[in-house]
Specification:
about 300 residues; Alpha-D-Glucose-1,6-Bisphosphate, Chain A, domain 4; seven-stranded antiparallel β-sheet
Amino acid sequence: MSEGRPDAGAIRLERLLPARVEDVFGAWTEPARMARWIAPTGHAEVDADVVEGGRLRVVMTDGDVRIEHDGEFLEVRPPVRLSFTWRSRYTGWEPSVVTVELHDPGRPASSSTTTGSRRRRGPRTRAAGARSWNVWPPCSQPMVPTREGEMSVDVRTEIEIERPRDEVAAYTSDPSNATEWYRNIRSVEWETPPPVVEGSRIRFRARFLGRDLTYIYEVRELVPGERLVMGTAQGPFPMETTYTFEDAPGEGTRVGLRNRGEPSGFAKVMSSMMAKAIRRENMKDLALLKELLERR
């Protein structure tokens, strides 16, 4: 970070690492090593000419999601300081400045790193910046941003199904049917006896964004034929899922599906990227639900 008063739009992240300063600097400047940690999910390709004025290019890929970033090295002072610009479509192609400062805090085999991302943008963009840099080199404790930011994902989708509401709601609200219409759910196990009631607990195994997930949903609210709310506060992707059922013209049913929560772990990627992936999968799942029920 620059000396003096911090930029009003700056994010400051700090971490104490059990590694030598030289090793941490290498994790930021050697393309092969940088590629191993910089993508929050999926994988990355890194090209870097680590000299002042040199170019930086990072391509993060996960399934059909591809995010390109580029930048220019502004300052290279091995092994204590590195500064470069950073931009992508998630910054509106407006460059931010990332500054990495390393120092030995006086204990062997340790280093402290500060990453600053300065933008002339609002709190939402600063929050996305904090999340995106919160994944950097693997360590037991995450970086903690000194400026709090929103991390929520909130995705709403719906579809109309030409079947009676009671029938659609009964089928959709039964977790045992989930593997038939949720493409990413591999298995469902009841932790409490069926049928579904408020307080029921169900273990799901799924695959999302190339990762295997196991999580337990608890039924928080159940109004038969109208509404089902399930949620989990643990696992790699804490989430609340809400289903709503309304009458649609022609004796059909309008099904609403809402997912909201606070991504964590590998899912610390930008909220907009998570929302896009969730929305895409939800639309495919609802289309399959419609197909299954309408051909009965």
